[in-house]
Amino acid sequence: MSNRVIHHQRFNEAIDTVYDAYVRCVDEDPVxxxxxxxxxxxxxFSIRFLTEKIRAGGKHEVLVVEFPPIRSYRAVIDECLMxxxxxxxxxxxxxxxxxxxxNQVAARSVKLIIFDEAQNLLERKTxxxxxxxxxxxxxxxxxxxxxxxxxxxxxxxRLFKGDDQIARRSLAPFYFYPYEWVGDEFKSFxxxxxxxxxxxxxxxxxxxxxxxxxxxxxxxxxxxxxxAFSEKLIKEVVRMKxxxxxxxxxxxxxxxxxxxxxxxxxxxxxxxKISDQDMAMSYTSAMDQAGAHV
Length: 294
Hints:
Layout: H1 9-26, E1 32-37, H2 43-56, E2 61-66, H3 74-83, H4 94-107, E3 110-116, H5 130-144, E4 147-152, H6 164-169, E5 174-176, H7 183-202, E6 206-207, H8 213-223, H9 227-239, E7 244-245, H10 247-257, H11 276-290
Parallel strand pairs: 1-4, 1-5, 2-3, 3-4, 6-7
Helix pairs in contact: 1-2, 3-4, 7-9, 8-9, 8-11, 9-10
């Protein structure tokens, strides 16, 4: 259950966008694909699914590197080497380390490197220059002849701003943002929520109807339009081992599973009246908190 993923429009678009970067490398035209998103939208699940999809083909490998705060430009290469179970100490300088990485990429038939948590490449305390770090990413892609997908919070976009070289080397960024609260965006959110409701029903848990608008609005306010976060609440309800899941159960699940910095009340409380303004406020607050475009 912990690996359960709801396939919805934005999730599928994220998969397709980065898979295209992999295909381009197979066609000997490697690129850099930026993916920027908020916490809780499903970036980690999308990386896991994409990795399994490529490996299932049996021909190529994917290297996934999740970065801690980085203290030097060579540390980026070292983190990649360590994913291959190699010690960076075996390489005397950056050039030798990059050559070692290139050899491993070729030997393992790696066609896609995924840099996750890329905002940590810009850890402010270390004085990292975004342009120089962006050049390091471009340098790895060029030397290893591999596509690179750069996943990160919105702040990671600084890696690509003000550097014409990496901008030319990169495709347009994919913004893995929450669904908005109106129109087709909200419809896509409700479709994904409907799949979660069906999941509860498949477990013989009595719950809301798929088209329950009031519940959808409450879940939207709770999640700020992030499907992965709504899934988190669904999983919490299942963990409670209840036979029915209505407002009382979701109110308890929200209290247990949520750490909200901008909601002052529980959206699943029976006396809560959810308005369109509440939905808009939830979305814009989450976006502002993440430093994303609204």
